[in-house]
Amino acid sequence: MKTYxxxxxxxxxSSSVQKEKYLLSYxxxxxxxxxxxVELVEExxxxxxxxxxxxxxxxxxxxxxxxxxxxxxxxxxxDPIFRAxxxxxxxxxxxxxxxxxAIDRFSDTFRFLFHKAYMMVVLVGMLALxxxxxxxxxxxxxxxxxVNIYMVAGLLVxxxxxSFFHELGHASAxxxxxxxxxxxxFGVYLNFPVLYTDVTEVWKLNRAQRCVVNLAGVYFQSxxxxxxxxxxxxxxxxxxxxxxxIMNLGFVMTLNPFFKFDGYWIAxxxxxxxxxxxxxxxxxxxxxxxxxxxxxxxxxxxLQIRPLEKYGLLAYSVVVNAFMGFYFCYVIPMFLYRFVxxxxxxxxxxxxxxxxxxxxxxxxxxNISMQLIFLALIGYLVYRTITSFTKRYAKKQ
Length: 397
Description:
Layout: E1 8-13, E2 21-26, E3 29-34, H1 35-46, H2 50-60, H3 67-83, E4 93-98, H4 100-110, H5 116-136, H6 149-176, E5 184-189, E6 192-197, H7 207-235, H8 238-255, H9 262-271, H10 276-291, H11 307-355, H12 362-396
Antiparallel strand pairs: 1-2, 2-3, 4-5, 5-6
Helix pairs in contact: 1-2, 4-6, 5-7, 6-7, 7-8, 7-9, 10-11, 11-12
Coiled coil: 30-64
Keywords: Coiled coil, Membrane, Transmembrane, Transmembrane helix
Organism: Phocaeicola coprophilus
């Protein structure tokens, strides 16, 4: 049963569109809506009978629309809200590890760290120390071949702990700005294992606040990085150098705007374009239909936003689609080609070491294990893609 009173109308949505948009929410999902749609929802919430609400809306608009036209608008733009299936995240697999209640105490305690003064001092200090590290450290990328299993286990524990602290940063930022956060979980995005935090309610915030929430994970990890950099400055320990490099590599991964990590959401908020990836594909579809002279259902988002953001979205669309094409059409095929060429030799070498009762070098074990993990994730990606297409095809039949 449709209950219009269950639709929540929020303040104007912070985006880069030329005409003001509002934010509606229902059943944990958020929707952009024009001022006219919001006015119609308000009338539907005011009256018990839909017919009376439509008549009131027609009177309010002084006969600009007929009751039939208003009814069509309700069926096209409002009724689908009640039929919407909760959207799944962009993960091939996901599992909540810690509930929102389990991390509430931490996020409540440490939300004060998002005061502007704290953030500026920490981020500037981290960048200065990090720059010093990269410019002054000799043998920066030299790795010791005497790495043992205990060191590897320690590095893995460090990476998990650092990533978990990263997610606590997102949760704490939500609390600072007065919105709720969900739990922290584990997921597989494309062929990357990741931790995630449910921060759906950030859509209630303005663009600048959303950017802070999206940057919050890296900001929290900056405290760890500063401690490691200071310790390395004092001791020059190689293990600390490895950890610093791992954290910086993690920053590069999470801040890249091409995959749906933090950098993607930061780019989305800087441009003021929600569903940024979808909008970039929407532009390609629009250009394809324009060239082929096919009917165009709706104007792409690119043509609805302000000029500065318009150029930004255009540049992003070109670069991200080129990058994704490069990743799927070159990086993955090249990995598979090299896997076929080199993996059998690596396995033979491993067998040779074991048959002679010798401990295989760490580099060999690392290469074999990483190739197998990457191959397994690619296989899972292909499997989920095929099953998704199969289900869609079955629904159409």
